[in-house]
Amino acid sequence: KVVLFEERFKRHDNDTWKRWLYTGVTRAEEELLIVG
Question: CA 1, CA 16: separation in Å to the nearest integer?
């Protein structure tokens, strides 16, 4: 189970943020919850 909080930090540029989301999504084996 993976829980992602879809928050952008000031230090993250667009590419870093996309990689962070991709990593979380691909790590979820059974369940993914995205909180925005």
Answer: 22
Our count of domains for the chain comes to 1
* pLDDT tens string 3-34: 988 787 788 899 988 898 899 889 998 999 98
pTM above 0.70, yes or no: no
Alpha helices per DSSP H over the chain: 14-27
Domain of 17, in residue numbers: 2-35
The owner of tokens 């870093």 is 16
Q: How far is CA 16 from CA 1, 6, 28, 30, in A?
A: 22, 13, 19, 25
